[in-house]
Design goal:
With 74 residues, the protein is mostly helical. It has 2 helices and 2 strands, in the order ββαα. The termini are far apart. Keywords: Membrane, Transmembrane, Transmembrane helix.
Length: 74
């Protein structure tokens, strides 16, 4: 006999009537694998193409926009 499982509120969880189909488990594992593969690729691309001068360029653009607003009076 299988031990009783309980949810976070202490209610017993009914055992499934039948096991999950193999296709469902494969789809879940494929989706999880694809998600984590994309995470790794995105993080690696961000690390490879990191530009430390980006903040300086953004700051100069913000300064120019601030000067234009001062001139226009907005």
């Amino acid at each position: 006999m299988r031990p009783a499982d309980f949810d976070s509120f202490g209610e017993p969880i009914a055992p499934p009537l039948r096991e999950e189909p193999v296709a469902s488990r494969m789809a879940l594992r494929t989706g999880v694998g694809l998600f984590w593969a994309l995470v790794v690729v995105i993080v690696a691309a961000r690390a490879a193409y990191f530009d430390p001068n980006f903040a300086e360029r953004y700051g100069s653009v913000a300064a120019v926009i601030g000067q234009i607003r001062a001139i226009v009076g907005a």
